[in-house]
């Protein structure tokens, strides 16, 4: 058992019988009342996002989780097929456990989050950014770079990402795996 002073981003806690991951947290202090700790929570075993407030020093119930390296193999009717890079065992997970499923390409490195108490997979995450090839984008016009104008580009995975006008078809770009936003071009 831990207290509200131990809350960190990414921590998984048990609240009202469900598991939630801490997305953001903070503390409110007032002159007359005791300090309060608030957190934005994303459901791990459900699709709910909630905000919760505790009194400072209240008990919370963290769940020990482990991130294991896996490789995305392919998607079929049964779900997303992943392989453990250490033991080469394969597992199949539903799309509801996959974070940003439109950014996965065959052979992509990812992390499966396991509840260490039950050894049940709780979700799959990508590294902080991924490198993808653009399969289609409209050509940019010369001299059209004075403003921060963006255009839609289709990736090799089928995802659509907004990119600057100077980025063209068949180039590699780095994409933020949390937001799906363009970061930079990548040299081949």
Write a brief structural summary.
The chain has about 190 residues and is mostly beta strands. It is about 0% helix and about 55% strand.
What does this structure look like?
The strands form 3 sheets. A 6-stranded antiparallel beta sheet has the order 1-6-2-3-4-5, with no helix packed on it. A 5-stranded antiparallel beta sheet has the order 9-8-7-10-11, with no helix packed on it. 0% of the residues lie in helices and 54% in strands. The model has no long low-confidence stretch (mean pLDDT 89). By secondary structure, it is mainly beta.
Could you tell me the radius of gyration in angstroms? 20 Å
Shape: flat
Give the tally of structural domains: 3
CATH topology of the largest domain: SH3 type barrels
Q: What is the first-to-last residue Cα distance?
A: 49 Å
Q: What is the string of helix and strand elements?
A: EEEEEEEEEEEEEEEE
């Amino acid at each position: 058992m831990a207290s509200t002073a131990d809350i960190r981003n990414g921590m998984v806690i048990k609240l009202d019988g469900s598991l939630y991951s801490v997305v953001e947290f903070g503390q409110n202090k007032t002159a007359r009342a005791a300090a309060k700790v608030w957190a934005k929570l994303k459901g791990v075993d459900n699709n709910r996002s909630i905000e919760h407030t505790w009194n400072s020093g209240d008990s919370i119930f963290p769940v020990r989780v482990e991130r294991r390296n896996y490789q995305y193999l392919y998607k079929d009717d049964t779900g997303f097929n992943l392989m453990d890079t250490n033991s080469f065992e394969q597992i199949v997970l539903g799309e509801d456990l996959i974070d940003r499923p439109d950014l996965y390409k065959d052979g992509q490195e990812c992390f499966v989050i396991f509840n260490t108490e039950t050894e049940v997979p709780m979700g799959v995450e990508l590294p902080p950014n991924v490198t993808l090839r653009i399969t289609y984008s409209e050509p940019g016009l010369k001299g059209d770079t004075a403003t921060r104008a963006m255009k839609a580009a289709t990736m090799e995975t089928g995802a659509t990402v907004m990119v600057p006008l100077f980025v063209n078809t068949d180039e590699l770009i780095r994409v933020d795996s949390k937001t799906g936003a363009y970061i930079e071009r990548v040299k081949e």
